[in-house]
Amino acid sequence: MLLYELKLKYERQTGEDNPGSVKETYLLEGFNCTDVETRLMEKIKPFIFGDCEVQSCKKVQYYDIRPAEGDYWYKGRVEMITVEDDGKETRKAVNILIQAPTIHQALKSLEGYLSSLDAEIITVTKTRIIDVFRAVD
Predict the structure, then answer these.
(1) Do residues 30 and 134 touch, judged by C-beta distance below 8 A?
(2) Bigger pLDDT: 115 vs 135
(3) For 17-26, 54-63, 85-94, which range has the lowest pLDDT when averaged over its residues?
């Protein structure tokens, strides 16, 4: 399965009686953009009224996805370090998606995850991802 990042624009109740235009980003696991667009529309249909537009759908890569308690998703950029038999060191940068309530908690979670691996954290940044839907929800 591949991962796709979808950006949507739609009308939703944002407060009192006033509907508002909302832009949201979701991450879905699926076979292609058509597949994930269809699944996402089914999941968010109860929250939408009026038009809904998929503004973009792009394939993305994450080494791992670490769901947990928290309202936000953070992207950890990590260098994985391997040493070949001949002693040559190889570094490969990968992205790991972490769910956490704060960036501090995301960093702590990422450090715990990497504690048994030979890796170095490059950055941790907050994403605009609202939710992640795996192939089997």
Answers:
(1) no
(2) 115
(3) 17-26
